[in-house]
User: What shape does this take?
Amino acid sequence: MSLSMPLDVVENKDSTARDHLANERTFLAWVRTALGLVGLGVLLERLGAGSDPQIAMAAGLGFISFGGLTMIYSVSRYLWVARNLERGMFPVAIRGPIVITFGALLVAGAALVYVLLLQ
Assistant: This one.
């Protein structure tokens, strides 16, 4: 009994295999990033941030949420790119990186406010 999902086998014309493997490597990099964000969130929540456990909880939940959203983005991006590669097209990411950058800036800004104003 095979545990793998049945997949369509396509002809390896030009760079088909190379493109799909690159898409998969990119997806795995996003997964590593998302898991790192979740791990950092758990660490912050467990170790605490200074003397205020509510700040530690908020920071932890923020990073865990950001990691979860990054994972959702990575899966949707992977599937979108794979679908378009099969059509001989490559979708350029514009909105996703902008949203993730703003999310990262929001987390960094909150950390900066905490360090500068609340300590």
